[in-house]
Design a protein that fits this description.
single chain; 198 residues; alpha+beta; NADH Oxidase; 4-stranded antiparallel beta sheet; 7 helices; 4 strands; 14% strand; globular
Length: 198
């Protein structure tokens, strides 16, 4: 995969508009997402900053043809944790594409702080989500007992020391019949404090 992948598509969106437009999408149409679009988003994801250039992020793309394997992992996780198995299976089928995101910290490097590897992976996830939004593709980062389960880790062969699943990203085109709610106006004064010379 080449980081210069740039499939034909809409012109890039100004960042401010893109950041405001990206929303979590919960309902998708049953339409495949072109592989070049996902590859482009992955190429953008790995441009995220990370300390010591360890590239701790891992992405496992599960296509419609392999969805049954994610369904099986979710069902097994639901059984183990006494959750609704049918509902768990449906969650694995919500979107045309699922991307398992994992963090593999470089524990062999004594300078590496494991928490920083998680931060870097989170930054890569945000790049991925924004790139999809720029291409007109919806997404949703899912976490919790199913997405982060040992069963999903086993599905993608995640067995390196300290490696763990961060979440599963649903990817697809938003269902226009179930519009995404408008984002509340940001209230920066509640979350930002300027510390100046005075």
């Amino acid at each position: 995969m080449n980081a210069s992948v740039n499939p034909a598509g809409p012109a890039p969106t100004p960042f401010g508009e893109l950041a405001q437009r990206r929303r979590s999408v919960y309902a998708y149409v049953d339409e495949p997402v072109p592989r070049p679009v996902i590859e482009r988003a992955l190429a953008h994801a790995v441009l995220a900053p990370n300390h010591h250039r360890t590239a701790p992020w891992r992405f496992f793309v599960i296509t419609r043809e392999a969805r049954h394997r994610l369904v099986g992992a979710y069902e097994a996780a639901a059984l183990r944790t006494q959750r609704d198995v049918a509902r768990a299976a449906q969650r694995a089928k919500d979107a045309p594409v699922n991307v398992v995101v994992a963090c593999v910290p470089a524990l062999d490097n004594p300078r590496v702080v494991p928490g920083e590897e998680d931060f870097a992976t989170a930054a890569a996830v945000q790049n991925f989500l924004l790139s999809l939004a720029d291409a007109g593709v919806g997404s949703l980062l899912t976490t919790g007992a199913l997405a982060e389960s040992p069963e999903v880790a086993a599905l993608v062969g995640l067995d390196a020391p300290g490696a763990h699943v961060v979440g599963v990203i649903n990817v697809g085109y938003a269902n226009p019949e179930r519009p995404v709610p408008r984002r509340p106006d940001p209230q920066l004064d509640r979350v930002v404090r300027w510390i100046d010379a005075n």
